[in-house]
Amino acid sequence: MSTLLRLDGIQVGYGDMTAVHEASLEVREGETVALIGGNGAGKTTTLRAVSGLLPIRSGSIEFAGERLDGLGPAGVVARGIAHVPEGRQLFPTMTVRENLELGARSVDARRRRAETLAWVFDLFPRLSERQKQVAGTLSGGEQQMCAIGRGLMARPRLLMLDEPSLGLAPVVVRAIFDDLERINRGGLTILLVEQNVLRALQLCHRGYVLENGRIALEGARDALLASPHIKQAYLGL
């Protein structure tokens, strides 16, 4: 599989604080890759750097062989990356359908909006049932479906998700992760930031462990699940 996203020694921070130190990772076409770690490890910061929401101080970010750093959020979306942020960040007074349609920003995505909307409604029938409902009145799980659907409306090559299980009941988390598996099986590459380490590793093909802003461990799913460090630090085994 060819490399779709490559981070090479990136350093990212806020003011005088450095949150990510010379982190390197890659996501190959068709994979689901998990980025795991505790609170404050730098996971969200890494996604925000890829999305152009935070400038990198050093290193480089490449997507499909082209430099991505310095483009800004609009340029990143135009290249084919969709970011589903932590906390969903829907427009609560707009309907489900209006929130979804906002995800179709590029010329190609707007042209294919009806086709993509039908695909999203097929993936998430609940959204079809509630398409005229105001997004702020949805349950947490339905809001997460809407946020993922909005990302898919961009017709991305890479879907990045930040803590999709946050605040959701276990049965809803199972359903969301089943949906992500279906999306990946359909050919979409996924980069997943998640504190539910067991769920993330069961879903992914490969993973990276970020600790104190540095990549501490990386490997295939089975190797990470078998790692004594992962078992002790993240799985409580």
Cα separation of the termini: 33 Å
The H/E string reads: EEEHEEHEHHHHHEHEHEEHH
Strand order of the largest sheet: 6-7-8-3-9-10
- Unreliable stretches, pLDDT < 50, 5 or more residues? none
Report the portion of residues in β strands. 25-35%
Number of strand segments: 10
Q: What is the molecular shape?
A: globular
Quick one: biggest sheet? 6 strands, mixed
Number of helices: 11
Helix fraction? 25-40%
Compute the average pLDDT: 95
What Rg do the Cα atoms give?
17 Å
SS class: alpha/beta
SSE diagram, text form:
Blueprint: E1 3-14, E2 17-28, E3 32-36, H1 43-50, E4 58-63, E5 66-67, H2 73-79, E6 81-84, H3 96-102, H4 107-111, H5 113-123, H6 125-129, H7 140-152, E7 158-162, H8 170-185, E8 189-193, H9 197-203, E9 206-211, E10 214-220, H10 221-226, H11 228-233
Parallel strand pairs: 3-8, 3-9, 6-7, 7-8
Antiparallel strand pairs: 1-2, 1-4, 4-5, 9-10
Helix pairs in contact: 3-7
